[in-house]
Amino acid sequence: MLAPVKKMRRRYTSDGFRTVNVKRRLRLACFILGAVCCALAIPMLVMLAVRDNAHLAEWWTRNIQAGWEKAVGTMTDIMPFSVLEFFIVIGILLGCYLIARLFIDLCTAKFKRIITGALALAVGGCYLLNLYILSMGFGYYRYPMPIPQSSTAYDNAGAIEAIEYFLDDYNYLANTLERDGNGCVVCPYSFSELAELMRAEYERLDDPYFSEYTPKAKPVVNSWYLSDMLITGVTFLPFGEATLNVDAPPSVVTLTTAHELAHAKGVQREGDANLLARYILLTSDNGYLRYCGYYGAFNNFLSALLLTGDYKSYNKLGASVSPLVSKERAYAREYWNSQPDIIGSIAEFFNNLYLQSNGVQNGTGSYDDGNKSEVIIPTDPETGEPEKDPETGEVIRIINYSQIQKMFFWIYENG
Hints:
single chain, 415 residues, mainly alpha, 3-stranded mixed sheet, two-stranded antiparallel sheet, 5 strands, 4% strand, globular
């Protein structure tokens, strides 16, 4: 006698055809995606938990991060376009499709498909976060960056002499380099030539703190959206790339190229990247690169006179800078002020959030970390009055120059 056959209940379409029973398959897909997401979350959480150990962060950046960047960057260097920009475009198109798909699924009450799609996105997000932390997330917690700095205690007269030394070179370059109709110095190289030149300049670094591999900077074709967000460049080490906003003013493009390559050398903290970029430019034998270094840092060095209290010399030397530089700065201000305020504010908010999530307490304020200086004026514990030098009668000022000022002094001593 045959056993009775268990009947399966099936759903029917509006046309009367039976639908495929996919209930079990959907449940299995959700389970698999959820399991993969949890599996990817484990290494991510472990890396986040241990990356604030400076010793481990140093070892990881020099070995794991540097190895990843060299392996991936060697492949992406072959491509004549920015891989990051390509994936951003693909991501935007995919996002538009997913939004439309979500709307259709909501209208047709296909909630299981929505859940499956959300889990698939979670898997992709966890995968990208793992790649990011592996290739960039440890660098913010490294030991302090080694950069040449003078230990000489310069007085006001010595500071003036050093500033005048650099001012002569700055003005010579400002008055001899070719300029465009906006008053900006014309870069004498194509972007590809500039990228190779900057790569060669970074090869001068021989300290093992810096990654051996230096990628070739790439231009962003759709740089307008970076300008809208007030962004001059992005380094994305999961792809081993440093990308640049080529619509920015010319001297800014060169400054940013040096800054983004500093990130690629394992220097993640923004203040350190600014400091290293200016060191590379200011110590170059190339006049154009030195000009861009002065353009980005001379005012920081000049402010050393404010620390000594010599406002007269500060104003005099500041007025001695070539008026061509002021014209170039005026154009740069006008260019950035012409960008939409709200988009720039949103981008800065997320950049600040990103930096804080990587342990940088002052967020976007960290870009200026290398320019932090200090003046200590001792006071009489009885009267509370500032202490004075018994010989000169002047108020005693204990000056701690900023890192970038000490770097200028070192270049002055070794130039």
